Amino acid sequence: MKYRMPTRQEKTLLNRALDKWGVFEYFKEKLLMIGHEDDGSAKICIVSPESRAASSKLEPYFLGLVIGDLKKQFAPSLPGADLFARVGKSNEYYITVDENAEKLVLYGRDVMGNSILQCSDTIDENELVIILNSRNESIGVGRTRFAGSSLLQKGKITVTTLADAGQYLRDEG
Amino acid sequence: LKAIIFPDSAESSSLAGKYNYDRWLVSRFLEYVPDVHDFLDKMEKPPTQYIRANTIKIEPDELKIRLESKGFSLKETLLPEVLAVQKAPMSIGATTDYMLGHYYIQDLSSCLAVDALDVKEKQTVIDIAAAPGGKTTFMAQRMKDTGCIVAIEPNERRARAMSFNLARCGVSNTCILQLDGTKADKLGMKFDRVLLDAPCSCEGVIAKDVTRKTSHTPTDVEVCSDRQQRMIESAAKLVKPGGLLVYSTCSFAPEENEVIVDWLLRKFDNIVIEPLDYGTNGLTRFNDMVFSDDLKNTRRLYPHIHDTTGFFIARLRMGVT
User: Fold this and answer.
1) Domain C-terminal end among A87, A114, A140
2) Could you read off the pLDDT of B165-183 as tens digits, one per residue?
3) Domain that holds residue A18
4) Hey, of B175, B176, B178, which one would you mutate to test binding to chain A, going by the most A CBs within 10 A of its CB?
5) What angle do CA A80, A81, A82 make, to 5 degrees?
6) Candidates B57, B156, B172; nearest CB to A65
7) Ramachandran region of residue B177, left (φ > 0), alpha (ψ -120 to 50) or beta?
8) What was the ipTM of the complex prediction?
9) CA separation, residue B137 to residues B11, B54, B107, B292 (Å)
10) Where are the extended beta strands (E) located within chain B?
11) Which pLDDT score is estimated for A173?
12) Three-class secondary structure of residue B83 per DSSP
């Protein structure tokens, strides 16, 4: 990947996104860089100042931790969702699922309404959400199929799982 | 350097036959492995599995409670982050905590090599031959994910796999370079700490791969030794004055361990081999070779004595005036 600092416009977009995910304060002191894959897609990476200094002299194959992709909007990656859940304040963009659903999500399955323990009344349909287990740990990233309390509908898939931590294990295999 | 071959004896032939090793290898083990009978017995058993709590995400006590509630039995070790798995109701690599990056499956010996490196927050560190990233992630957690770790791996597929491991563990202070470790000195940088866990003939992990009992050849030792010499020379040039270089392998072969470190001591001035608190002394002689007496400060870890995979660790303080 090729790495560079974000433009002013990208910084504004990122700050809004980080605020949305409840991690703006945490990232105030952090350094973010943009990595471009060969296909042109932009990855947002958290990088230590020392790594940035080193990378200016080297040609890194990979730098820092990818916390998400930046297209028209910011979408958190699995490590990004994990970091946000650890350091941020859970808000409407986080849903909590029960233990049974946790296992299913880690196999890449979608979320049934009756397995959601906690979600916001104000969340819209088609929004990205971070899926948490009952210990408030991120287990995946999903997209809502319904708005607000309709997410709790019994017997229906209400959140599509886009990425899950089980991928790490499946990729190893 | 030619690997030294010793003549067969009645003992080496008998042990080689009993445990299905090539005779040349057992003849050598008799020269540098203590209590060879116990050693060969131990190598027949599955090695003890260890996990290392990823303190970027979880404290070791909390991890222990969680895994024990799932039926695992875990025991403390020399290092606070490392736990020995004594009973496992399922594969230790298939738990939710593993997927969430709460721990890394890693032998205690590998963790001791990182412990010997004594990394501190905000330092610059280079890990030569870093994939799959186990030692890199341990360094990162000891550094509280600050500073910079330059992790070198020449193979793209392995470099990519390492990036996944770093991501699972939530490590952000790394810079992966696709580079041959023998050329690391061309980077134009100096580091506080340098780890060279050199590619080796893997004599120490025969219990994990029993095909090595007969597929391992003297040529393996010679090829590895030659590469290790080039790598340690390159690594030594990367250390800031007063900084540390840790050299390790998972081999017992003196040609890959003491011979390499002794060569470095002769090649460069002002290197001190610092003592470590675990393992047994390194060799100060092998066959007709006599090494610097300081080589006793290097450490050897044996499966039948230390319950780890076979390992060698040397902690070298560089540029001491």
Assistant:
1) A87
2) 999 999 999 999 999 999 9
3) 2-87
4) B175
5) 90
6) B172
7) beta
8) 0.94
9) 43, 8, 14, 34
10) 49-53, 73-76, 82-87, 103-105, 124-128, 148-152, 174-177, 191-197, 239-249, 272-274, 280-281, 285-286, 289-290, 299-301, 311-317
11) 60
12) strand
CA B64, CA B72: separation in Å to the nearest integer?
Answer: 9
Interface residue ranges in chain A relative to chain B, Cβ cutoff 8 Å: 45-48, 50-51, 53-55, 57-66, 77-79, 82-83, 86, 102-103, 106, 133, 137-139, 165-166, 168-169, 171-172
> Does residue A104 sit in the same domain as residue A156?
yes
Exposed/middle/buried for residue B69 (C-beta within 10 Å: 0-12, 13-18, 19+)? exposed
Residue of B111, B169, B224, B250 marked active site:
B250
Query: Quick one: DSSP state of residue B23?
Result: H
Give catalytic status of residue B169 as yes or no: no
**Would the CB atoms of A64 and B57 count as touching at under 8 Å?**
no
What percent of chain B is predicted at pLDDT more than 70? Answer: 100
Phi, psi of A126 (to 5 degrees): 65, 30
Q: Are A85 and A138 in contact (CB under 8 A)?
A: yes
Q: Which of B263, B293, B315, B311 is nearest to B33 (CA)?
A: B311
Which among A19, A53, A87 is the end of a domain?
A87
Q: Is the dihedral of CA B271, B274, B279, B283 positive or negative?
A: positive
B83-139 pLDDT, tens digit per residue, is: 999 999 999 999 999 999 999 999 999 999 999 999 999 999 999 999 999 999 999
C-alpha of B192 from chain center: 19
> The CATH number of the domain where A111 resides is what?
2.30.130.10
Whether A72 and A30 share a structural domain: yes
The tally of domains found in chain A comes to: 2
Instruction: List helix spans (H) across B20-107.
Output: 23-32, 36-43, 60-69, 96-99
Please indicate whether, in this complex, the C-beta atoms of B168 and A53 are within 8 angstroms of each other.
no
* This prediction's pTM: 0.95
- Write out the H or E segment, with its range, that includes residue A68: strand A65-70
- Map residue A153 onto helix, strand or coil: coil
| CA-based end-to-end distance of chain A | 25
